[in-house]
Amino acid sequence: MQVLMVASECAPFAKTGGLADVVGALPAALAPLGIDAQVLMPAYPALFPLLPEGEEVATFEGLPGGAGRVVRVTARGVPLLLLDMPQLFDRPAGLYIDETGKDWADNPIRFGALSRAAAWICAGAIEGYAPDVLHAHDWQAALAPVYLKMDGRGQPPSVLTIHNIAFQGLCGPETLGPLGLKGDWFHPEALEYYGQIGFLKSGLVFSDRITTVSPTYAREILTPDFGMGLEGVLQNRGAALSGLLNGIDTEAWDPATDTALPSPFEARSLKRKAENRAAVCKRMGLDPDGTGPLFCVISRLTGQKGLDALLEAVPHLVNRGAQLAVLGTGAPELERGFVQAAEAFSGRVGTVIGYDETLAHLLQGGSDAILIPSRFEPCGLTQLYGLRYGTLPVVARTGGLADTVIDANAAAVAAKAATGFVFDEVSAEGIAQVIDRVVEAYAEPRQWQAMQRAAMKQPVGWERSARGYADLYASLAP
C-alpha cells in the first residue's frame, strides 16, 4: 500500500515540536506492515543539500505562490518528497515565524502550496506513483483533502491528523483567489470559520477520516473546554474521529545505549542513574548532595504547559527538599521567572533557556521524575521518554498524559503497576500536593524502584500505533 504523508515538518530535518517526531518515525514503523509511506514536505534551507542528491519527479506552474518542483530523495531512512519553492520556503529564522517572532504574513500561501501539490500528486503528477491514501498532518496540510474534493476526485481517501487543535491556520477571505479555492464554498458548512478561511476547519469537513494523537484527546476536543471553537464541527464528524497514541523512537531513546549518558543503564542496573544525576547536578549548577527527588522539566515554557502554576509552586518544591532542573524556551515572562527561581534557590533550582537535545537526554537519564503539568496535551512525548528512562512522569490528567501514565494510587502500587503520578488540578496548590506525594514515595526506595521498573516495561514504541494506522488505511483503501 502507498501512503502519501503531507506535513510541514519532519524530524530530524525540520522540527518545532512533536509533529516532526511523529512524521519522521511513522514511515519506518509502517514499513514492516507492507506500507510505503512517503513524506511530502517543504524544502527548507536545511534540506537544500539533499536536493542535488535526489530526482526531480514533478514540476508545477500553478501552485499558490508560483512555480515549484518536487524532488524525491531518501535521507536517514525517511523517503522524502521535497517541495522546492525557494520563493516561499527559503527563509531565515523559524519555519513559521520571522526574526521578530511574528508569523510569516504569507503562511497561508506557503502551506496552501504544500496542500495543492499534494492533491496534484494524488492525481498522478508523479509518473508511476498513485497513493492509495492521503494522510495530512495538522493545519499546514489540511487543505489537501479540500483540494482533492474540489477537483472532483473521490480517490484516494484522506486522513487528517490533529496534533494540536489550538493551531488552526486562519486567514482572510481575500486569500480564496490566491489559494485557488472555490468562492462558493466560502460558507460555514465548508471553508468559512467566523468570516475567515479556516485551514484546519476545512480539512475536518472534507477529510474522510480524522484522527488525533490519543484516545482521551479525541474525546476532549468534542467539548468546549478543549475544542477551541471546533467542537461543533467535530461533533458532526464524530463517527469519523478516532484517537491513536503516538510512540517514540526507542532506538534513539534507549537508556542502555544512550551516548549522552555518562552511565547507560537498564531496569536491572538502576543504581547507575546516580552517576547520571551527578552529571545533571554539575551541568545545572545543583547541589550534588541533595537527598530529595530531582525533578526535571523539558518543555516549551507556556501557559498551555501549566508552567506558570509550577513556577508558583517552586518554593514548596524546594521546601520539601527536592530539586528542579528546567530546560526550555517560550514566553519571556516564564523564561525570566525560572531564571530568577534559579538565582533565588541556588543549588536547588537550575535553569537553561533554549533547547539542547543532548542535555534533554541527560536530564531524562539522571532525573528522578519529570514534571508535565499541562492544561491540555494532545499526546505528549516527554512522559514517554520518562517511562523509557525510569524517570517517573508527574502529569496532569489530560489527553495523552492520562492515557500513558498509571497513577501511584494504593491499588496500583500494591499491584506493582504504577508508573508515575497523575493529578487533576493544574494550579500551584494542585502541583504542591502532587509534589508531596512524589517526595513521600521517593522516601521508600523499594517502592520507588518498583515503579521505575514498571515504567520501563511500558510499551512506548510505534508498534501498536503503527498497526492502528495500518488498520485505518486498510479500512479506507479500495
From TrEMBL:
It comes from the Bacteria. It is an enzyme of class 2 (transferase). One of its GO terms (molecular function) is alpha-1,4-glucan glucosyltransferase (ADP-glucose donor) activity. Keywords: Glycogen biosynthesis, Glycosyltransferase, Transferase. Residues 289-449 form the Glycosyl transferase family domain. Pathway: Glycan biosynthesis; glycogen biosynthesis. Pfam families: Glyco_transf_5 (PF08323), Glycos_transf_1 (PF00534). Its EC number is 2.4.1.21. It catalyses: [(1->4)-alpha-D-glucosyl](n) + ADP-alpha-D-glucose = [(1->4)-alpha-D-glucosyl](n+1) + ADP + H(+). ADP-alpha-D-glucose binds at K15. Synthesizes alpha-1,4-glucan chains using ADP-glucose. This is Glycogen synthase. It comes from Meridianimarinicoccus marinus. The lineage of its organism: Bacteria, Pseudomonadati, Pseudomonadota, Alphaproteobacteria, Rhodobacterales. The gene is glgA.
